[in-house]
Amino acid sequence: MNRNRIIILLTFIALLTVGYFLFGQTKVKTDERFVSYTVDTKIQDLKFYWKNDKGEIFKSIDNLKNWLDTKNKKLNFAMNGGMFKKDNSPQGLFIDNGRQIIALDTTKGNGNFYLMPNGVFYITTDNLPKICKTSEYKETRQIKYATQSGPMLVIDGQIHSAFKEGSNNLNIRNGVGILPDNKLIFAMSRSEINFYDFADYFKKLGCKNALYLDGFVSRTYLPEQSWTQTDGNFGVIIGVTTNKK
Question: Of 67, 70, 90, 126, which residue is 20 to 30 A from 169 by alpha carbon distance?
Answer without folding.
Answer: 90
